[in-house]
Amino acid sequence: MQTITRPRTASPMEELDEAHQLEIQILNLKNLGYTMVRGAIPPDMLQEIQNAFDKKMNEQIARMGRNFRNTFNRFDLIPLWQEPSFRQLVNLPKIMPIVRGFMERYWDDEPVVFGAGHGHCLFENSPAHQAWHNDARVNKKASDMTPPIYIRLSFLIEDVEEDMGPTALLPGTHGTHVNSPPWFTAPDGQPRQVPEMILASGKAGDCLINDTSIYHANTPNLSDRVRKVIWALYAGSRTPIWVRKDLPEDYRDQARLTKADVGASDDPVMAALFRNLPED
Question: What is the DSSP letter of 169?
């Protein structure tokens, strides 16, 4: 029988070791539908990504104007994964063990990169571009569902405070094929504040990992700063990659990613992550 010697005075709580911190993140993804990874992008890589993001953003502003919005009402930077500086984000040492551990344990599968990732700018004093929803709901009939569930990465490229339009999530609502109730959304189409929701704010280099079937929304940017994120999607290796017909025409062709775009890789992990892409 183990004897427990209790301390006589208070002291700071002991931190979990690295292996158990990983275990908690995998369990949070399963039980809550999301987890936040702090400092996911190493500092030297973060500087490279920030410079590349700003260059692309400024080029697009010069070409299309700052008021350009696609049919999703977003100012997106696409495509990104054709550029090696952005592709390295899909295999970060603080990210991949969580995604791989979750998929192997609960999906009996391995991750692949789904489609082309892109950047998103929510300019200062901008309304939310998308109300509450989930991404695995019933369409016309019960047998006509969107492909099961995806894991999304949202990389914070600059610090994102709670008034800057961070993603809102309602923990525990993942795993459903039913969309969020209509009263989650105000008459003007903006998301309402929902009790128990969390806001994915954080520092530059942090990453939100979430199950895309969780109820989530964009929130308005009430600040005088641009909220900058990069999104990436993982699918299971058995999930078919299909041509997304819902993409806006103004970038549908650009968003299509092929093996030819990515090119050959000497890294077997990177090659495996992109293995389900079409040839050309």
Answer: E
Listed residue (256, 207, 259, 261) closest to 90, CA to CA: 207
What per-residue confidence (pLDDT) applies to 105?
A: 94
DSSP state for residue 182 in the 8-state scheme: G
Determine the residue type at 120: H
CA distance 76 to 130: 13
Per-residue pLDDT tens digits for 119-155:
999 999 999 999 999 887 655 444 444 445 689 999 9
3-state secondary structure of 181: coil
Helix H or strand E segment including 273: helix 268-273
**Radius of gyration from C-alpha coordinates of the chain:** 20
Which pair of tokens denotes residue 86?
Answer: 């952005």
Q: Which residues of the chain have pLDDT under 50?
A: 140-147
Contacts of 109 (CB under 8 A, 6+ apart): 103, 236, 237, 238
Q: Is 104 in a helix, a strand, or coil?
A: helix
- Burial of 259 from C-beta contacts in 10 A (0-12 / 13-18 / 19+): middle
Amino acid at site 98: I
DSSP codes joined into one string, 42-53: -HHHHHHHHHHH
> pLDDT tens-digit profile of 45-70?
999 999 999 999 999 999 989 998 88
CA distance 206 to 74: 22
What confidence score (pLDDT) does residue 278 get? 74
